[in-house]
Amino acid sequence: MKTIGLIISHKNGERRRALLPKDIEKNVKNPQQLFFEEGYGLSVGVSDDEYRAVGCNIVSREEALACDVITDVKLGDADYLDEIAPNKILFGWAHAVQNIPFTSNILKNNHTVVAWEDIFENGRYIFYRNREVAGEAAIMHAYRYCGKMPYDTKVAILGNGQTAKGALRILHGLGAEVDVYNRRLEKLFREKMYEYDVLVNCILWDTNRTDRIIYKEDLKKMKPGTMIIDVSCDPYLEIETSHPTPIDDPVYEVDGIIHYTVDNTPGMFPITITKVLSEGISRYIDYIIEGSIESYPKNLQTAVVIENGHIRDERITTFRMARNEFCK
Description:
Elements: E1 4-6, H1 21-27, E2 34-37, H2 48-53, E3 57-59, H3 61-65, E4 69-71, E5 89-92, H4 100-108, E6 112-115, E7 120-121, E8 124-125, H5 128-142, E9 154-158, H6 162-173, E10 177-181, H7 186-192, E11 198-201, H8 216-219, E12 227-230, E13 251-254, E14 257-260, H9 270-281, H10 285-290, H11 298-302, E15 304-307, E16 310-311, H12 314-322
Parallel strand pairs: 1-2, 1-4, 2-3, 4-5, 5-6, 9-10, 9-11, 11-12, 12-14
Antiparallel strand pairs: 6-15, 7-8, 13-14, 15-16
Helix pairs in contact: 5-6
């Protein structure tokens, strides 16, 4: 039986949590194996006593980090990797393909990563609502820095998945003129991008690609004050001038073009998203506590992208080889 430590993320503005007492009580057979960092649920209105009431443990951060498994909502931004013992199982949003420094540390210390971004059920991403809220939250937050209301803008959305759906919902609700460009329309977007006031990137980019959808040189042709809302925010990938920004300092300018590049926008709505996370994750907790990776359900096995310091997801190897200048 493994112990699971649940850690408060130190990422700027991150207030989402992985588990709620009501779902532990409903779905988890081994709550005594869960060790929550003190104050874990306060950001979503849940006290330590409520976790204790369903059989869980409340401990210091150091004690939670000593557990066999560490659960961290923003695992890829973990600030404790140099403090923990090797051979841990790490459970959270890792983005291990494009997050080269994180992955290098994982490989060096023989950790295992079970990546939330790769958990699907019946073909649908388990946390699809988080992606929708990512688009919704980004639009609501970014327009504070645009200088215009949505009904005063012409907008291009790149991508037509769940994140784009969320962005489109808010933009249409507030009267923006919106065009949506899917993968087949990338060439058309490249021709038309200079006509828009706001560009919203919601692409799930193929990490094997070495081209971009927006290059730095393109910015000079855009209208002054154009805003790029990069919800996907993949450094080194589809938008050359993008790099992640924190929630409390979300924008910067390059060549007069406003860039909004917060990479954890759903963290601004932690109560809504924690409900989504907890309902999904609670159903897998006992598999992680009780068994080996081989005993996990198939969809959870697929989410094991690194096992004991060995890469299982070949996309990680391909990406690192293509960008080996960042791997030194």
